[in-house]
Structure formats: C-alpha cells, structure tokens
Amino acid sequence: MSGETLASLTLFNVQTNDSATYTLLATSTAGTNSAQTVLTVGPKPRLLITEVHPSGSGESGHQDWWELTSFDTRTFNLKGWRWDDASHSVAPGNAYVFSTDIFIHPGESMVFVENMAASAFKTWWGTNLPPALQVNTYIGGGLGLSQTADEVNLWNAVTQVGNELVERVCGVTFAATSVGWTLVYDPENPPVGGVFGVASTNTIAGTTADGVFAASQLGSFGSPGYVVGPIRVTASTDSGNAVLTWNSVTGRNYTVQYKNNVTDASWATLTNVTASAVSTVVAEPLGSGSRVYRVGVGIPFVSEP
C-alpha cells in the first residue's frame, strides 16, 4: 500500500488477504526514516456462548452466569477482550474488560459468573462439574442478565465503538426463563439467528441429553462445563470380538477411533455410527495385539451473528 499521507493508517474490515508487511515512511526537512510492522489476520475465532443462567431478582444464593465454548483448533488468551449484555457497547465504562490472562483451549468450555467466587460456584453446582472447569468472576454495573429477555455479547480487544454488531466474536439473544433454569446449546436444536430457545429442563432426550444435571444446592438445573453429556465407554470381549459400549443420544453421530499403542502420535478411525438408541455397541475382531479406543461425538457449529 502506498500513497497514504496521514499520520496514521487505519485498516477497516480487514480480511486474511490483508496480511502483509507494512512500511511507514516519514520524510521531513531533516531527512527520511522508515519502520516496518507485520500484520497477520487469521480467521474469526470459532467460539460460541453455549449456556446462560439469568437469575431472577431476590433469588437467594443464585447468580447470573454464562458459558463460553471453543470449537477452534487454536488457543486464545481473552485478556483485553470485552463482554456486555443487551446494550452491546464496548464504550469505556460500559463493557466488562477481562484484565487478566484467561486461556481457552480447543474443545474447552468455561464459565463466567457474576460476583461469586469460583469456590462458591463449585459448591453450588457440586461434584458433577468437570474437574478442570475454569470459573471466572466478573463484577460491574449494568451487566445483570434478565430473566425476561437479554443478550450476551463477546468482543476481542480491538473492536471499535460503533462496530459492535458487525465485529463481535459471538453473541446470543434469549427470552424468558424460569427460576433455576439455564438455556443451553442443544446440538440437535442449535440457536436459529443467534436466539437461544432450549431450556435445561427440556433438552432433546431429557435432562441428561446435553450433560444437564441438578445442582447440589438451590434447585438449579444446567450443564456448566458441558455442551453434551460425558461419554462413558466400557470395553469387553465376546466370541473373539472386542466390544465397546457407550451411552448415546438417538440421532447423534459418533466416531470410534483406536491406537495400537498408547504412545502412538495419532488416532485411526475404526467406524462412524449414528446412534439409534440410548446405548450403542460396536464390535470388531480381536487382533494379535492390544488396542486403545476412544469415542467422540460431533457437535454442530452454528455461528452466532
């Protein structure tokens, strides 16, 4: 790019093909000097808001919280990123700014809770939480999530005031909920137009379909840390076959993979299967050696506008 004569260069709506080395050339009567900088533009992060829990006024012990899940292959540090509710504004003093390092890794779900310590949140929800769940606390005015209708919106550190709706990383709108409910990202019924519509008490296959469980306290239902329920695989042998059995949801697609040695760098796919019942069985003939198996489930990624 050449011919720019302003004191600064601002690039709007950058795309991956804008990645380049940019040179600043400054000339005056004292002479000429130059400096270079490298701009790298990657694809939009594949992050989704996968659960919201708006607490009603006067609910003792309940607090608002929401869940963020990474469908990306990259790790992101959320330091400097911002979030807000229905006012969706990154103006100073409005959106909440993450001021510390918060790393979200591929496949990870983490929780953000209002004015509640991580230890108190874990006491509330109990031992069914994922052991390594990250719980992050936020405190600030104007961030309450309403049980009648509201939004959750997330931006990175460089979004400018006025560009909030086109540059947000992800965002959802949700309508009314009842006391103790969360709204969840249901793989078979994902948000349409960014609108949450599946309550934790009405998932596609009952209260366990998306990892939903009852909290240890306060009569709450939700699935903090889970987008789908944990898959529990048992292995046995029968008539010369290795037999794998796991809990499943009818209509979901599962992938069975194996390694011949646990130290192997990669997994090979044994089969893909669409579940037709709440329990699925796959068998293969026993070989001369041992194998290590795992079962995964595909989760649709529906981009939130």
Would you write up a description of this structure?
- By secondary structure, the chain is mostly beta strands.
- The chain folds into 3 domains: 1-42, no CATH class; 47-222, no CATH class; 233-297, Immunoglobulin-like (Sandwich), CATH 2.60.40.
- It has 2 helices and 22 strands.
- The protein has helices at 118-125, 164-167, and strands spanning 20-28, 31-39, 47-53, 65-70, 76-77, 82-84, 96-97, 103-104, 109-114, 135-138, 150-155, 170-174, 183-184, 195-196, 213-214, 221-222, 233-238, 241-247, 253-259, 268-274, 279-285, 292-297.
- The longest helix has 8 residues, at 118-125.
Characteristic terms for this protein:
305 residues; mainly beta; Immunoglobulin-like; 5-stranded mixed sheet; 2 helices; 22 strands; 4% helix; globular
The percentage helix is: under 10%
Mean pLDDT: 87
Low-confidence stretches: none
Strand order of the largest sheet: 10-9-4-3-13
What general form does the structure show?
globular
Tell me the span between the first and last alpha carbons: 31 Å
Number of strands: 22
Structural class: mainly beta
Write the layout of secondary structure elements.
Elements: E1 20-28, E2 31-39, E3 47-53, E4 65-70, E5 76-77, E6 82-84, E7 96-97, E8 103-104, E9 109-114, H1 118-125, E10 135-138, E11 150-155, H2 164-167, E12 170-174, E13 183-184, E14 195-196, E15 213-214, E16 221-222, E17 233-238, E18 241-247, E19 253-259, E20 268-274, E21 279-285, E22 292-297
Parallel strand pairs: 9-10, 12-14
Antiparallel strand pairs: 1-2, 3-4, 3-13, 4-9, 5-8, 6-7, 6-11, 11-12, 15-16, 17-18, 18-21, 19-20, 19-22
